[in-house]
Design a protein that fits this description.
Blueprint: H1 2-11, H2 20-37, H3 41-48, H4 52-89, E1 96-99, H5 103-116, E2 120-122, H6 139-145, H7 165-180, E3 187-190, H8 193-204, E4 224-230, E5 235-242
Helix pairs in contact: 1-3, 1-4, 2-4, 3-4, 4-5, 7-8
Length: about 250
């Protein structure tokens, strides 16, 4: 296929010498990069392309996206290491890390686990929102594809068959319930912006909204909220909302 030849060319791969390592570490990441940073349609278009120029342009685009993805991954790793190092210097301790099983979350969880010597448990309840047919599309593009309306139903799935606001809220309830049912202790949840927002809704008693004026909690990379749950009074307390400053030991 022309697309595969073009991709191999920009990646510096001789297709006559392709092996499992080449596919797994050179060609595969370039095909996957589009779905992580934009939409996976670029990879599909490349593999089905028959025009030499079109295939070449798509191969160059995927190669650049892979470079961008690697840069973002390094930045996230550096931020996680900085945060973990800060917590380690303060002798801050957690009993368990509860992480989303998705790659970026697991990478952060593994870094913090290594620095602080904490076990990690993966809970699918903390995965990012399922965007249905829009899965893999950038948030700004999703917003462009779903024009603003006066009211949207909180039960309406996104991307035709993705999760609705209520679905996401319900899953956040499950994630928090799973943590609350653990023995009393300090738990670090590593997850994603969408589901963490709904977790804050649950904690603060905010129901899913059918408009654009509901609260938004911005969690940048390694940003965090510090919460306490009193199992006796069954009451939540918000201790701290922080993006990158060191956490105080409380």
């Amino acid at each position: 296929r022309q697309g595969l030849f073009s991709l191999a060319n920009v990646a510096g791969v001789d297709l006559k010498k392709v092996n499992a390592q080449t596919i797994g570490f050179t060609l595969g990441p370039r095909l996957n990069a589009s779905g992580r940073l934009d939409t996976a349609l670029a990879s599909f278009d490349l593999l089905t392309a028959t025009d030499v120029k079109q295939a070449g342009d798509l191969a160059l685009k995927l190669n650049q996206q892979n470079i961008d993805r690697q840069k973002i991954t390094r930045e996230i790793q550096e931020q996680a290491e900085t945060l973990a190092s800060s917590w380690k210097s303060q002798l801050f301790k957690f009993d368990l890390i509860v992480s989303s099983p998705l790659k970026r979350a697991t990478q952060t969880a593994e870094i913090i686990s290594r620095y602080l010597k904490i076990p990690v448990e993966f809970d699918p309840a903390w995965k990012e929102r399922n965007y249905g047919k829009l899965q893999g599309t950038l948030l700004k593009d999703i917003e462009a594809l779903t024009p603003t309306v006066d009211f949207f139903h909180p039960y309406q799935p996104i991307g035709e068959n993705g999760e609705s606001q209520v679905d996401l809220y319900t899953r956040a309830c499950v994630g928090l319930q799973n943590v609350i049912r653990q023995p009393d202790g300090a738990y670090l949840i590593i997850s994603h912006g969408g589901i963490l927002n709904k977790a804050m809704f649950v904690v603060l008693g905010i129901t899913p909204q059918g408009h654009y004026n509901s609260p938004v909690f911005h969690f940048s990379n390694t940003g965090y909220a510090q919460l306490r749950y009193n199992s006796s009074s069954r009451q939540w307390a918000v201790i701290n909302l922080n993006n990158h400053l060191p956490m105080n030991h409380i």
